[in-house]
Amino acid sequence: MTQTMKAFVLHEGRGRFEERPLPKAGPTDVIVRATAVSACSAELACLSGEFPAAEGTVLGHEGVGVVHEVGSLVTEFEVGQRVTTASTTPCGICANCQRGFSGHCRQAVWGGYTFGVSRDGTFAEYFTVPQAGYNVVSIPDKVSDAAALCITDTIASGSTGVEAAQPPLGSVIVVFGQGHIGLGATATARAVGAALVITVKSRPGGEHIAKALGADFSFNLADHDVQAEIRDLTGGLGADVVIEATGARASFPMAVEATREGGVLAVLSAYDGPADAALEIPLAHWGWGIGDKTILSTFQRCGSERMGRLLRLVETGRIDPTPLLTRTYGFGDLPRALADLKARPTGHIKPLITFEPASFQDEFETTQGVEL
Fold first, then answer.
1. What is the pLDDT of residue 2?
2. Which keywords describe this protein according to UniProt (predicted)?
3. Which of 55, 155, 325, 331 has the most CB atoms lying inside 10 A of its own CB?
4. Is residue 366 pLDDT above 50, yes or no?
C-alpha cells in the first residue's frame, strides 16, 4: 500500500496539491479515508488571510469517509466503518467543554474549530479526527455520504441556533440569511415543530432551495417590505424565534424588530468589523428595555452524541439536506469548486466533492479568472 496521499495545502495565499505522508493515528485518533468533502466561505477566508490558518496546513473542515486506522485507546470504531465528524472537533475535556460550550474549547478564539486552520483538515485522501470517542460518529446505512456531509457543518451549525432558542410547538420561526448556515437553520426549524418557517435574504434567487428545505415563505430585501410581510403573517405579533445568520451587522436590528415580545433571537453570525464596532438595538424594537426579548449568541454544538441525533433526523426522513449540494466535482477539480464558491452564482450553495479518479492541478492562483 502506498504511504503517501494527495492533499490540498495552503502556501502563501494559494492552495496547491501536494504529496503528503499518510497520517498516523495517535492513541485517541481515528484516520479516515475520505469519500467526500465539501467547502464554504471558511476556506476562502483561509486563502485570503482573513482566517489565521497556519502556513502549510491542509485545508478543509467538512468530510465523510471510511475508518482506515484507529488509535490504541479507541474502542468505539473499527477499520472499514463509515463515519463522519462535526467541523468543530473539541477536546471534550477542558472546562468549557465540560460546561457544555465545546465550541469554545480551551478558550481559544475559534475554540474547537481547528480543521484546516491550526491543524490539517479534510482536503486530503486521508484525514485525522482527534479525540475520536468524543468527535467521530458512525453513519447509518440509510444515510448517503452526501447527506451525512451536509450534517458536518451546515446542519450542525444551523440547527444550533434553533435548538438553543427552544421554540415552542407550533411556533413561527424567521431565518435571516440563506447562505448554507441559514439554510441549515431552515431545514431544522420544521423538524423541531415550527408551524410557520419564513426566510429572509438580501437578494432574489434560490428560493426553491429554501422551500425544498422547509420554508413556507421566502422573502428578499430587494423585492419585499420584510417587516410588513412578517407582521401580516403573524397577526402583527412577530416571530417566536428569529435566527440571525447573515453575517451582516446591518441585519441585526432587523432581526430584533422581527422578534415578538417574549421571543428569542439566536445569533449564528460571526460579524466582521473593528474590535470597537457595535450592533445596534433600536429602543422601540427592544421594547424600551422591557420587551422580554432574549438574545443568544451561539457557536456550533458538536460531539458524537449530537451528531448521531442529527443523522437520525436524516435516517428517519425528518429532513433531507441534499438540496444544499448544488454542484458536484472530483477532488482534482477542487480549485474550480473554490472558484465557483467565490463567484457566488445565483442558486449555488455548496459543492459535493468526491474522490473518484481524477487529474490534479499541482498549484493554482486563479481558476476561471477568479483569484483565490
1. 75
2. Metal-binding, Oxidoreductase, Zinc
3. 155
4. no
